[in-house]
Amino acid sequence: MGLFSKDIKTMDDLFVHTLKDIYYAENQILKALPQMIEKASDSGLKQGLQAHLGETKNHVSRLEQVFKMHGVKAEGVDCPAIDGIIEEANEIAGEVEDKKVLDAAIIAASQAVEHYEMTRYGTLIAWARQLGRNDCASVLEQTLKEEKAADMKLTGLAERGINAKAA
User: Fold this and answer.
1) Which ranges of 71-159 does DSSP label H, i.e. alpha helix?
2) Residue 39 and residue 35: Cα distance in Å, rounded?
3) On the CB side of 144, how many CA atoms lie within 13 Å of its CA?
4) How far does Cα 124 stand from its chain's mean position?
5) Per-residue pLDDT in tens (0 to 9) along the chain, 167 residues
6) Fewer C-beta neighbours within 10 Å, C or N terminus of the chain?
């Protein structure tokens, strides 16, 4: 089902479609994070990615909770955006031999993922409120806060040394 397919007729349909999109994305991220953790050489970066892996498992659980609250089966739809971000990250990681440069590349790729997630969660929160689903919005807000915090941690790691070491 494409974003503007005939299956999306209402704001509720759009909300559910986007929930399915981010559900798919979070599950793809769960698959990709262990590879990024393995490739990272900076201990702080490894620890941060491991912590975010645990958070991502919680994000999937929260999405399943929102699906249930909304009376819809939890399932994903293909998300070419996250697939592209992850594919690009893997391509770049495969081309970088210097471990310090690779750490900087991992941060950049991770932030691309975080920013995608933040746009989706922000949109879903706004739509949930518009649909009178403040209960769903509250659950989604917890995840948005964690995504923003992860982005800030990545920025901190980059600015406190990883980018300088890579240069």
Assistant:
1) 80-95, 99-130, 134-157
2) 6
3) 15
4) 14
5) 445 556 889 999 999 999 999 999 999 999 999 999 999 999 999 999 999 999 999 999 999 999 999 999 999 999 999 999 999 888 887 888 899 999 999 999 999 999 999 999 999 999 999 999 999 999 999 999 999 999 999 999 999 999 999 99
6) C
Cβ neighbours, 10 Å, residue 12: 15
Separation CA 118–CA 108 (nearest Å): 15
100-135 burial string, b = 16+ CB within 10 Å, else e?
bbbbbbbbebbebbbebbbebbebbbebbeebebee
pTM here? 0.92
Are the C-beta atoms of 109 and 53 separated by less than 8 Å?
Answer: no
> Which residue do the tokens 């999937």 mark?
60
Contact at 8 Å (CB) between 99 and 135?
no
Residue whose entry in the numeric block shows the structure tokens 């691309």: 112
Tokens of 31: 């698959």
With the C-alpha atoms ordered 90, 94, 95, 100, is the resulting torsion angle positive or negative? Answer: positive
Q: Please state, in angstroms and rounded to a whole number, the distance separating the CA atoms of residues 151 and 113.
A: 9
